[in-house]
Amino acid sequence: MSVIVVLIGASLIVAAGFLSAFIWAVKSGQYDDRYTPSVRILFDNKEENK
Amino acid sequence: MIKELTHEQKQQFGVPSMEQFSYDNLIVKNFAIATMVWAVVGMLVGVIIAIQLYLPALNLNFQYITYGRIRPLHTNGVIFAFVGNAIFMGIYYSLQRVCKARMFSDLLSKIHFWGWQLIIVCAAVMLPAGLTTSKEYAELEWPVDILIALVWVIFAINMFGTIAKRREKHMYVAVWFYIATVVTVAVLHIVNSIELPVSFLKSYSVYAGVQDALVQWWYGHNAVAFFLTTPYLGMMYYFLPKAANRPVYSYKLSIIHFWALIFIYIWAGPHHLLYTALPDWAQSLGTVFSIMLIAPSWGGMINGLLTLRGAWDKVKEDPVLKFMVVAVTAYGMATFEGPMLSLKNVNAIAHYTDWIVSHVHVGALGWNGFLTFGMLYWLIPRLFNTSLYSKKLANLHFWIGTLGIIFYVTAMYWAGIAQSLMWKQFTAEGILQYPNFLTTTQEIIPMYVIRSIGGAMFLTGVIIMIYNLYKTAKLGSFMANEAAEAPAIFIEKKKGSGEKIHRFLEKKPMKFAILATIVVLIGGLIEIIPTFIIKSNVPTISSVHPYTPLELQGRDIYIREGCNTCHSQMIRPFRSETERYGEYSKAGEFVYDHPFLWGSKRTGPDLQREGNKYPNVWHYLHMQDPRSISPGSIMPAYPWLEKQDIDIAGTEAKINTLRKLGVPYPFGFENTANDSLQRQADKIAADLQKNGAAVESNKEIVALIAYLQRLGTDIQVTKSAVK
Amino acid sequence: MPEFSTKTEIKCYHCGEPCRNHDITIEDKVFCCNGCKLVYEILEENKLCKYYSLDEKPGISQSERKINTSGFAYLDDEQIQKQLLDFTDGKISSISFFIPQMHCSSCIWLLENMYKLNPAIFYSQVNFPEKKLSVRFKENEISLRKIVELLASIGYEPQISLNEVEDKVKSNVNKRLYYRIGVAGFCFGNIMLLSFPEYLSFDDSISFFYKNFFGLLNILLSIPVILYCSSDYFKSAYTGIKQKTINIDFPISLGLAVLFIRSVIEILTNSGPGFFDSLSGLVFFLLAGKVFQSKTYDALNFERNYKSYFPLSVTIKKSGEEQCIPVSKLKVGDRIIIRNNELIPGDAILFNGTANIDYSFVTGESIPVGKVAGEIIYAGGRQTGSAIELEVIRTVSQSYLTQLWNNETFVKRDEDKFKSLVNVVGKYFTIVIILVAALAFVYWYPTSIKAAINAFTAVLIIACPCGIALTSPFALGNAMRILGRNKFYVKNTSVVERMSKIDTIVFDKTGTITKSGDSNVNFSGGLLTSFEQRIIKSLARNSTHPLSIKICDAIKENELFETNSFIEHIGKGIGGKIGYYDIRLGSRSFVLAKEMEDEIDIVDMLNSKVYLSINNKLRGYFVINNIYREGFEEAVNSLKHEYDLSVLSGDNEGEKENLLRFFDDESQLLFKQKPEDKLQYIKKLQGKGKKVMMLGDGLNDAGGLKQSDVGIAISEDVSSFSPACDAILDASMFSNLVKFIQFSISTKRIIITSFIISVIYNILGVTLAFQNTFSPLAAAILMPISSITVVLFTVSFTNLSAKRRGL
C-alpha cells in the first residue's frame, strides 16, 4: 500500500505541471480568442490554382 | 525541398517576412504504412487467438503460438503497433500544420520511426519466446523498456521542438492533447517499469503483491487514458473538423474538456481492483473519480458529434465522416460504460468475464480503429495529391467493419453476462449449481465462435482498406515535402521587460506563495518517497514464506507461458467465489510476489487456492493433455514442459535479486538454493513415478507442479495449525 | 403606384444580395454594384478567389457603402499614428483594427491572407469574437494609410475612432479569475482525492500514517485556496465593513476563514480530518459561478461616449492647399472643409457652400436644417450634400457639444445606487447566523468549552451561504445568455436584475420606435402616371435631402431622365427642368413660387408634406410618415397597463397624431427634446421614485440612457456604434421587449425561490451544527448538494421560463 505515496506523488507532480501549463496558457493569451483558431485550422496553405 | 532560413540569414534580412518552408509528409506516409502493416498483424493474431479459444489444437502443440504467449502479442500489436503508429501518423501530420512549422528535426523523426518499429519487432520476437514481465500492456522486458523510454524521449524532443518553433502563436487544442499524451505516458511508463534485472532478458518488478497491482493498474488505466484516448481526442479535434470542413462545434468546450479530463483522469486507476485485497477506501476512490470522468468524456463526444450538426447530408456522402461518427459514438459508449463498470455492484458481475473484453473492444475497434480508418481515408489521398480510388470499397469497409464490431461486441456481452450469472448461481440447497467451471465455459463457446467471425470481418475490412489505399497511392504521386508559407513569429519587446522576475516576486506575493507551496510539496514528496519504496509497510502474515527455489522457477514458467492471461489468482469475498475456490485472498499473502499475478480475466478457473487440491500426477496429465482429464476443456496442452530442462543456472541470480527487493532469503542461501531445488524436485518426481508418470526431476513440468501445489497453501497451514 | 416587376432574382456573386440590374458582370458572374465587382477583381487578380468557396456569399455589399471622400489622409499624421499603433520599432509596426463587417470564415481567411495583397503586411490575425484584426507590417514599405485603404478596397473598412485610441488598456480581470479557478480546481481535485479515504474508513492501525500524511498534504493544498483563490471575498467583505455595510461576501469570508482555521487545528491536534474538501469545493464552485456570470460580448461596446462619433481628422485649407490634420490640432481661425456625411468637429461660421445640417446627434431632430453663409454651425452637426467651407470659432475641446457631454451628469454613473437582492438578503442572513452561532456557544458552554467552540464554528461553517451566493450568478448569467441568444445583449448580470424592477418606460422616437430608414410615402392629389413618377424621381435623385431620398426610394420606376438647371433652396425645396417640364418639390410657397404666409409654410413642413408642382401647377403633395417598428403597437398595448410609458422626441410635433393612436394621453408625448431635456425628464421621474427604463438609439439619447436605471440602445446593426448603455437590442427583436421584461421578472422570482431552498438547507445544517452532531462527512455531502441543487434549479427554471415565453 505504501506505493500509493509514490503514485500520489507522481500524479501530483504531473498535475502541478499541468496547472502551471494552464496558468501559462491563460497568461500568454492562448485563450484570449476562443473561436477563431477553430476556423483557422481549416485553411490549407496550398491550392492557389482555383 | 525548400530550405528554411537559418537564424543568421534571418538576421541579415533584418525584418521578418513570409517564410517559405515545407511539411514533412514522408514521415507521415511511413507511419501510415506501418499503421496498416501492424493493423493486419495485430488483428490477425487476434483472430487466431479468438479461434484458439474454441479450437485449442490450433497452436499445433507449438509453444511459440500458444494462447498464453500470443495473447499479449495481440494486445501489444494492436495497442502499441497499430494504434501507436496511427497516433504518430496523426500527430506528425496535424502538429506540423497547426504549428505552421516543419517537424523540429527530420533525423529525430526518422530515429523515432525506426526505433518504434524496432520495439515492435522486439515484442514480436520476445513475447512468443515467453520473455515477458507478465504485467498487462507492459509485458516487455527491461532492455525494451529502456528502448521505449529513449524513443519516447526522442519523440518528446521532436514534438516540443516543433511547438517551440511554431509560427502560429495559438496552440490549437489538439496540441494540448498531444502534450498531455507525451508527458503522462512517459511518467506512467517509467514508474510502472521500475524493475530489477536478473539477467539480460529477465527482471523482477520492484513492487510486490498489492503494491505491484496498484502501480500496474494505475498505469494500465492511464495507458488507456493517455495512449488510447487523449491522442485520439486531439486527432478528433483536428481531423473531424477538417473532414467536415467546418469548425468544431464549440472551441470553448474543447478547452474546458481538455483541462477537466487532464485533472480527473489520473486517479481513476484503482477501479480495476474492486473487491480485491486492496483496502476499501482505495477502491472507492477509484469509483468516485471514474464516475466523475463521464462529464468531461461526454463533453468531448458531444462536441465531436455536434460539429456535424447541420452537415448530416455530408456524412451520408463521405465515408471518412461515417467512420468518424461511429468512432465518436463508440467513444461515448465506452466512456459511459467504463464508469458504470467501476460501480461495485456492476463490477461484481462484469469483472473477470468477457464483458470487459467487449468493453475494451468497443474502444479499440470502434473508437481507435474507426477513427484511424477515417484518418487514413482522408490522409492518403491528400499525401498523394489525388482522390480516393473507390468510395464503394470504402463504404464496403465501413459496413463490414461496423457489422464486425456488432458481432464481436454483442457476442462478448452475452458471453460475459451468461458466464458470470452461471458462476454465481446457487441451487435451492445452497450449493453451487455449476460447481464445475468447465460447464460455464462450454456454455459460451458459440459466442466465442461468433466473436471470431466478427473479428475476421473487421480484419477483412482492413484488408479491403489497404487495397483501396494502395490503389489510391498508385493513382497519385507522392509529395514528400509539401510547400507552405507563413509569417515568421515575431516577438514584440515591451518596454521594461528587464528585472521581470524580481518585480514578479515583489509585486505578486500571492503567486509567490503558490509557487512556494508547490515547491515545498514536491520537495517533501521527493524526501518521503525513497523511504517508502525500500521499507514495505504491508503487514506480513507470519505463515507466509518466500517461495522455494523450485517454486520460484515454476512461477517463472507460469509467467513465461502467460498462465495469468486466463487464470486469476485473486478470490473476491463473495460466497460464490469462496465456495468455488476457497478462502478469499488477503493482501498479506502476496508480499513476496514480484510481480503480482492476480490476472484480469477468468477464461479458466481461479488458481489462488490451487495448492493441494489435486495430486501431482493430476497436474502432470492435465498439462500433457487437458482434455484427457477434463473433457471439453479449451486449455492448450503443454507437452514441451516435460521435455525442457529447468534453468538452474539462473537460480542464484534470481535469489540475489529478490533479496535485494526485500524477500528475506538468508544470506548465503543462493549458494545452496539449487541443492534445495533438487531435493524438492526429486520428491515430486518420485511421487509422479509412483503414480505411473515417469518424468525426470530436472524437467520444467516438475517446477510448475511445485509452484501450483504451493499456491494459497500458506494460509491453510495457519488454519490447520490453529485447529 | 405600379410595382416594379422583378425577373428571376439573380444574386450578386460577391455579396449574395439580389441584383437590380444584370449588366454588371465579369464572365458569367453577376454583381449587384460596381463596388462588389471591384472587390472581386482585386481578389481575382491576387488569386484569392478561394474566398468565395469557403463560405456562402461571404462578401459585404458595396452598394450602400458610404464613400469616405476625405480618404484616410489623416492616418499619415504622425501623432495619430502614435496613438493608433500598438507597437513600433521604426521598422516593424503593429496595429489592431476593429472591423465590424467580418462575419464568416471567408472573412477570416481573407483577412489573414493580407500578405498576398501586399507582402509588406507580413502578419495579419483575426480575433473573430472581438471582430479585431491585428496587423504587423514593414513601416518603410507600406504606410498605415495604405493598409486602411487596402482594407477598405476589399470591403473591410476598419472603424477608427478616438475612443478606441484612448481606451487601449485592456482589463485583466478575467484572466485573474481564470488563474484562480485553475488553482482552485487543482487543489479541489487533489484535496478530494486525499479526503475520500477518511469517509471510507481507515480501519486498521497502519492507516494512521496515511491519515497524517494526507492531512498534512491537505493543509498544504488548501493554503493557496484560502490565500489566493478566495482573496476577493475577503477584500470585498473588508471594503464592505469599511463602508459600514454588510454584504453577502461577509458571511462567505467568515465561513471560509472558520473552515480553514478549524480544519488546520483539527489536523494538527489530530482531533479530526478537517473540512478541506468542503472549503476548496466551495471556493471552486463560487469561482465557477463568477465565470458563468462574467459572460461578455466582446464585439459590442457598451461604453462609447461622444468621442467615438467624432472624426479623428479634418481637412483644412491652408494657403489654397487642402491638408489633413488631426482634430486635436485644430485652431481657431482655421478654414475647414466638411464633405457630405462628415461631422462638424468644432463650432464654426459657414463660409462657403450650401449647408444642410442634420443635428440629430445634438437635438434628435432628424430633418436637416438649412444654413446660409455667415451663420454659426455648432459642433456635432452632420453635413448632408455638397462640401462646405467653414471657419472655426471654437475648437473641439471647448465647443458646444463637448461642453454638453462633459456635463457631470452625463459622465458620472452611480454604480452603487442599485443594491442587488443578494446583498440585501446577505445582511439579514449574517445577523441571524451570528446570533445563532452565539446561541449555540452559550448553549454548549456548560457542557464543555470545546463543545461550545465546536458548535459555534460548525454553525458558521454550515451557514456559509454558498447556495445564496451561487444563485444570482447562475440565474442571472443564464438569463443573460438566453437574452443574448435572442439578440438582446446585456452588459452585465446586474442589468437583468434591474430590469425586473422597472415601472416606467421611456421611448425615444426617431430611430427607436420608428425605423430610421424606412418611411411611408403617400401622394395625395390623384394618381401619378408612370411618366410623372419617372420625372419626379429624376429630379429628386439630384438632392441628398432626406425627404428627397425618401421620395426617390418610394418610386420604383427605373428609366430616368437628364435634369437641367437643377436648383436647391435650403429649407425650401428643389426644382429643375426635364424636357419641357418645370418641376418643383418642396414647401407650398416654394413650389408655387409665390410668397405665402410664413406660418402655413412652416406647418406644412412640420407635417412632412412635400408639395409637387409641374409647370407651376400644384399637382398635390407627398405625405411622408414614419413607419413604426413591427410589434410596437402590441408592445405598447401590453405594457401600458403595468408601466408608465412616455415618448421623448427630438423632432417637432408632426407625428403627434400618429402617436396618439398608441398612447392614451398627450402628456406622455414630449417633443423637441434636446439631449439635456431627456436627461432631466428621466431625473425628474427618478426623483418621484420611479425606476426608469429608457430605449434610445442615437447619441442624443446617451444622457438619458446613462441616467436611466436601464438604458437600452436599439441598433439595426449591433456591432456598429451605439451610445453608452446597459444593453443593446437588435432592432429586429423589438417586438420581444415585453417578453424580455417579463422574463427578467420571472428570473427574479426564481432567485427568490432559490434563496428559500438554500435557506432550508442551511436550517437543516445549522440544526445539526447546533446539536454538535455535525461531521465532516455531513459537511462534505450537504454543502455540495445544496450548491448543486441551487445551480440546477436556477439554470433549469430560467431555461424553462424562457422556453415558455418562446425565447
Largest sheet data of chain C = 7 strands, mixed
Helix/strand class of chain C: alpha+beta
The portion of residues forming beta strands of chain B comes to under 5%
- CATH-assigned homologous superfamily of the largest domain in chain B: Cytochrome c oxidase-like, subunit I domain
User: Number of helical segments of chain C?
Assistant: 29
3D structure, described in words:
The complex is a heterotrimer of chains A (50), B (723) and C (807). With 50 residues, chain A is an all-alpha fold. In chain A, 60% of the residues lie in helices and 0% in strands. Chain A has one domain. Chain A contains 2 helices and no strands. Chain A is elongated. The model of chain A has no long low-confidence stretch (mean pLDDT 78). Residues 494-506, 533-538 and 719-723 of chain B have low confidence and may be disordered. Chain B has 3 domains: 7-470, Up-down Bundle (Cytochrome C Oxidase, Chain A), CATH 1.20.210; 500-534; 549-722, Cytochrome c-like domain (Cytochrome Bc1 Complex, Chain D, domain 2), CATH 1.10.760. In chain B, helix 4 (106-126) runs antiparallel to helix 5. Chain B has a two-stranded antiparallel sheet with strand order 1-4. A two-stranded antiparallel sheet of chain B has the order 2-3. Chain B is globular, with a radius of gyration of 28 Å. Chain B is mostly helical and 723 residues long. Chain C is α+β, with helices and mostly antiparallel strands and 807 residues long. Among the domains of chain C are: 1-64, no CATH class; 73-166, Alpha-Beta Plaits (2-Layer Sandwich), CATH 3.30.70.100; 171-235 and 253-263 and 274-294, no CATH class; 315-406, Calcium-transporting ATPase, cytoplasmic transduction domain A, CATH 2.70.150; 487-514 and 628-745, HAD superfamily/HAD-like (Rossmann fold). Helices cover 44% and strands 17% of the residues of chain C. Chain C has 29 helices and 28 strands. In chain C, the strands form 6 sheets. In chain C, strands 16-28-27-26-17-24-25 form a 7-stranded mixed sheet. Classes of the chains: A mainly alpha (50), B mainly alpha (723), C alpha+beta (807). At the A-B interface, helix 1 and helix 2 of A face helix 6, helix 7, helix 8, strand 4 and helix 19 of B.
